[in-house]
TrEMBL record:
Major location (coarse): membrane
Originating organism: Clostridium botulinum CFSAN001627
PANTHER family (alphabetical): OLIGOPEPTIDE-BINDING PROTEIN APPA, PERIPLASMIC BINDING COMPONENT OF ABC TRANSPORTER
Keyword Zinc: no
Transmembrane segments: none
A Pfam cross-reference name: SBP_bac_5
Full protein name: Methyl-accepting chemotaxis protein/ family 5 extracellular solute-binding protein
Keywords attached to this entry: Signal, Transport
Length: 256
């Protein structure tokens, strides 16, 4: 998950990995592998108590060592993750990224099921960062084998350029998923046609024309759902468009 940087891969990884915390469908911070957490009196140190008995897809138990490994991996200069900024607020992260320290001083294992994260300064959005699948916990012993081993509801059973196959993880700590197998197609040339021909069971649409086409079909049940995502817009300031000519337009967009 440390190398994921766009929406589609994040949606896939969200089924495979889970972090200390999660963000539920209402945008609220919820327990992940941590059953509880609290902030010390210094207003900088967060302590997380892990649930016992959580299993990775390879059958190994999740411990605080895996948490430390996963979070430090996100900051590892050798990996050069595009998501390291999520944890740069942790004390000692800069020294670690520069190679001046072997470990991040602000990440401390208290015991097998307890870990503390000390920040360089108070930051209200830190727990939200931890709730992203990008901060998912992976098994430290499997990473060198090239396997994708998480502790989420699904595990990868097949993967290639055409797509991947997810199998329900029966030992998932929140209960096995209701759907046993999910096949994801990466290379469909016409997803709408494949869906209408019943070659796809589920389709995510973001295009107005596709939406209009599907709405006109009475045999299709459309489900609208809020999606937690960030989209970026850039402006060509050398063009002669209203966006480059009028700064008030840019201000208005910023306030929208």
């Amino acid at each position: 998950p440390a190398l994921s940087y766009e929406l589609n891969s994040s949606l896939l990884l969200n089924n495979i990995h889970i972090g200390l915390l999660t963000i539920n469908s209402y945008g609220e911070i919820s327990p992940g592998i941590a059953k509880s957490w609290y902030l010390e009196k210094d207003n900088l140190t967060w302590v997380f108590n892990l649930k016992k008995g959580i299993k990775f897809h390879n059958g190994k138990e999740v411990t605080s060592e895996d948490v430390k490994f996963s979070l430090e991996r996100l900051l590892d200069p050798k990996l050069d993750s595009p998501n390291g900024w999520l944890l740069e607020i942790i004390e000692g992260s800069e020294d670690f990224k520069k190679g001046a320290a072997k470990h991040v001083s602000g990440i401390k294992i208290l015991d097998k099921y307890r870990i503390s994260l000390t920040l360089s300064y108070s930051y209200s959005g830190f727990l939200l960062n931890l709730g992203l699948e990008l901060c998912g916990i992976i098994n430290k012993d499997s990473i060198n084998q090239g396997d994708v081993v998480g502790c989420g509801p699904y595990k990868i059973s097949e993967f290639n350029d055409e797509g991947c196959k997810l199998e329900a993880f029966k030992e998932y700590f929140n209960g096995a998923p209701y759907i046993d197998i999910i096949n994801i197609n990466f290379k469909s040339e016409s997803p709408i046609d494949d869906f209408l021909n019943k070659d796809l069971d589920v389709l995510t649409i973001n295009d107005k024309n596709e939406y209009t086409t599907l709405c006109s079909n009475k045999n299709i049940n459309l489900i609208e759902q809020d999606l937690l995502a960030t989209y970026y817009a850039s402006f060509n300031m050398k063009s002669n468009s209203i966006f480059s000519r009028d700064k008030d337009v840019r201000y208005a967009l910023n306030l929208a």
